[in-house]
Design goal:
CATH topology of the largest domain: Alpha-Beta Plaits
Order of helices and strands: EHEHEHEHEHHEHHEEHEEHEHEE
Number of domains: 2
Oligomer: single chain
Largest sheet: 8 strands, mixed
Distance between the termini: 68 Å
CATH superfamily of the largest domain: Nucleotide cyclase, GGDEF domain
Structural class: alpha/beta
Helix content: 40-55%
């Protein structure tokens, strides 16, 4: 059985209110109650939560019908249909400002009352659906923006929104960090897939927090490899110091985690500094990436590192030698580039000089 539409009648003339109640019940509506003051209408609207309110514009009490309807509109989602014997333009314009479901001039006919109510209910239903759809779209946009910020740097997103494209850029000097885990293949064979993903998610989430602290950019994570850089977008003459500081904090986190974890992770890191070209690739699945010999050398630094160590190139060493003690490891041959010096980063020389 179809549920009856519940209507609150707000009319200060008792005889009219009684007649309205009879007509509404004849039309198949349920009258929750009828009141004669605006203040009472607000109270009953809150208590009864009617589907619609028939509101006389001229009411006794401190609030007229327009004022009461405005307060109800702001507090509750209930459509209002005005009843009025006044036809002056000023009153009707004030009534329209409240965005009512409609208004009906007295004296009204049964058919006209029925039509006004059904039209108001239909209009309210459509407007409610539109509001819900708008909220869904806004929420979807927020979620999409959040997802986009996880994929692309903020400056890149801004450029894409402003111009629709992202132009490749050359950076004369940035620092690139690669990390991965020594013995990762053995770990994957020992852990169930779900547990492995959970472990990596916990680790990389912490890494994300660390690089945010040092104002660095995450470029990608592939398997157990985590890649970041410093010096993109924000001019940082100490980008190498920031990247090494972040790497050391990552090492400290892993060391602390290993005290209670069943898996004993062995993080190794490699860092190089130099020029790169940066840009967005892809049309549907965007990726912000960097290219150049500096990237390849950073990867080689990581490959030549050891668990628990940060291996840096000679170019990075020149940028951080006043901040960290380092252990010289000798030279490594880089294809097409000859030999490059390598160093393990040790303790900081002056902790207070490392700027976050």
């Amino acid at each position: 059985m179809k549920k009856k539409t519940r209507i609150l009648v707000v009319e200060d003339e008792y005889i009219i209110a009684i007649d309205l109640k009879k007509i509404l019940e004849k039309l198949g509506y349920e009258v929750t109650s009828f009141v004669g003051k605006g203040e009472e209408a607000i109270k009953r609207a809150e208590e009864e939560k009617p589907d619609l309110i028939l509101m006389d514009i001229m009411l006794s009490g401190q609030l007229n019908g327009i004022q009461a309807a405005e307060l109800i509109k702001n507090k509750f989602e209930i459509p209002v249909v005005f009843l009025t014997a006044l036809v002056d333009e000023e009153t009707l314009q004030k009534a329209k400002i409240t965005e009512p479901g409609g208004y009906l001039l007295k004296p009204f006919e049964e058919k006209g009352l029925h039509s006004a109510i059904e039209l108001a209910l239909y209009k309210f239903k459509i407007e409610k659906q539109l509001k819900e759809k708008t909220r869904e779209l806004e929420l979807e946009k927020i979620n999409n923006d959040k997802l986009l910020h996880h994929i692309l740097p903020a400056d890149v997103i801004y450029e894409m929104k402003m111009s629709g494209t992202v132009n490749p850029k050359h950076y004369e000097s940035i620092s690139i960090l690669f990390t991965d885990f020594e013995g990762f293949r053995q770990i994957t064979s020992q852990l169930p897939p779900g547990e492995l993903v959970e472990e990596l998610n916990e680790i990389f989430s912490r890494f994300d927090s660390i690089i945010e602290k040092y104002r660095l950019e995450k470029l990608k994570s592939i398997g157990d490899t985590y890649m970041i850089c410093g010096g993109l977008f924000e001019e940082q003459n100490n980008h190498a110091v920031r990247v090494i500081s972040a790497a050391k904090e990552m090492m400290e986190y892993i060391s602390e985690k290993n005290k209670t974890s069943n898996v004993k992770w062995k993080l190794k890191a490699g860092i190089n500094s130099g020029p790169v070209v940066a840009g967005v690739v892809g049309t549907n699945n965007f990726t912000y990436d960097i290219w150049g010999d500096a990237v390849n050398i950073a990867s080689r630094m990581e490959n030549s590192s050891k668990g628990g160590e940060i291996n840096i190139s000679g170019s990075t060493y020149e940028l951080i030698k006043d901040y960290f003690n380092c252990e010289y490891r000798g030279k490594m041959t880089v294809k097409g580039k000859g030999e490059t010096d390598m160093y393990f980063v040790k303790e900081a020389k002056l902790k207070e000089s490392i700027v976050v």
